[in-house]
């Protein structure tokens, strides 16, 4: 009886300890290749940051008198043309045709600014021009009331 129990236990242990047909090195290599393909398919510019929304909008009006922007106009009202995506934790839903207030951190005038991570070139915007930007916020006194903040944009 003890031999039968011992043989049964030995058989069970040997079956359970058998290698599965999977090679961990091959799985890791496949995973690495998948990550590389995703990285190529999704360039870093296409990733939308946390708390941000990527949109295309048209400038409707520019506020030239703002105490925050002594040298360049930085507040504008814009109409959303298209919402291209949201980063996680963005607190609003924006739809085409909606009018929003924007606070342009670096102003609406053309400028080139040297930043720690490279050079920022802002082409400037005027009434009627369209642009793509990643906006952030939408609340709080530091953001200018209910204005969304724009740090960088490109003309369309």
Could you describe the 3D structure shown?
This protein is an alpha+beta fold. The protein has two domains: 2-42, no CATH class; 50-155, OB fold (Dihydrolipoamide Acetyltransferase, E2P) (Beta Barrel), CATH 2.40.50. Helices cover 21% and strands 36% of the residues. It has helices spanning 2-16, 24-41; strands at residues 52-63, 75-86, 99-104, 111-115, 118-122, 130-137, 148-155. The strands form two sheets. The chain has a five-stranded mixed β-barrel with strand order 1-2-3-7-6. The longest helix is centred in the first third of the chain and has 18 residues, at 24-41. The protein is elongated, with a radius of gyration of 27 Å. Mean pLDDT is 76; it is low at 140-144.
